[in-house]
Structures are given as structure tokens and as C-alpha cells.
Amino acid sequence: EVHDYAGEGNRCTFSVAMLESLLNIDIDYYVKIDLDAFKELVDAMGGVEFNVEERLYYSDPEQGLYIDLYPGLQTLDGEKAEMLVRYRSGYAQGDIKRIEVQQAFLQAMIEQLSSSDTLLKNLDSLIKIGLEKSETNMPLSEALHYAPYVAKLNPATVTMDTVPGEGGAYYDLDEEGTKTLIDYRIYGIEPPVST
């Protein structure tokens, strides 16, 4: 919501400031990839194999949004991947389920991208999309410093979490649960054992 209302030129800065406040952490760098870049990345990888759990159908001509996916294991191209990650209307849990599906898709994408065959075969396209289609505050020299680590990334060590909370149309953050999650994921402090 902050990103939407901040206005051109302030979106990333305001979003980072809000996340720093909500999570009580410092964020040095950000990388923003829009949906067009996301689709191009998926296409540059030759698609992403993913198991669509259920029939996804949604039509909103006003937004120009049409989602039409059948269940099953399949290779999603960029357009179908966008359909998957944007769908929420038919899920009983709405946005929470959408986030879960987005995280599962990103995990599949990371696993496939981490295979040396996929990475080497598509490296030029991936770098070009990354440089031309993303927005970041990270200097190129710093990005190059991290490149060896990315190449050695083990997909099994990548974790994704949804901050704890509850809600329907609006999500109420569980501040204490979020602090516990951040302490564990960022600082390695084990959560207290409940009795």
C-alpha cells in the first residue's frame, strides 16, 4: 500500500522505511523487479516447472487481468507464472494462500535457476534482464562482490516466511510474533519454548 501511494520516485524509499520500522531491522540494499521483468526472467529460464494445486480461473476486464490455469505439474512460461502469482480470489485464505503459492513458486524458480545447466545456458539473458529491468540502490561494484555467493547458493538453505498475523481484507501484524521471527531468522536467536 505504501508503494502504491508513495508516488513515483519515492516508492522504494518509503517501502524500505516502512519495512525497517515494521521489522525493526536495517535494510542496506533493495532490488525491485516488476511483473514484466518477472515474466521475462521466467521466459529466459525456459519456464519453471511447478505443480498447480487447483483450477485457477479469474477474469477482470477492467484491470486487463485474465487467469486461466488447470491443475497439475507443468512448465509455466512468464505469462502463466504471472497468472499463478497474482491469483487470490478463489482461495479460502485469500492473500495468505497467494503468498504461500508465491513462496512455493519462488522456491521452485530458485532451485531451477541454481542448476548449473540452467544458469549457464541463460546467463546472458538473465544478466541483461537484471540490469535493464530492475530497480536497486546497490552499486554495481557491490553487486559484483556478491556474485560468487549467488553462484554457490544452495536452494535448500533459502527460507521464506510470512510475518505472523491475522485478517481478511486487512492483515493485522502480530508484533511479538514478528519480533520472535526476526530474532530467529536474522540474529539466530532460538524462539522461547512454550510450556
Describe the structure.
Helices cover 51% and strands 16% of the residues. The protein has 195 residues and is of the alpha+beta class. Strands 1-6 form a two-stranded antiparallel ribbon. A two-stranded antiparallel sheet has the order 2-5. Strands 3-4 form a two-stranded antiparallel ribbon. The chain is globular, with a radius of gyration of 18 Å. It starts with a helix and ends in an 8-residue tail after the last helix. The relative contact order is 0.12. The model has no long low-confidence stretch (mean pLDDT 89).
Could you provide a short overview of the structure?
The protein has 195 residues and is α+β, with helices and mostly antiparallel strands. 51% of the residues lie in helices and 16% in strands.
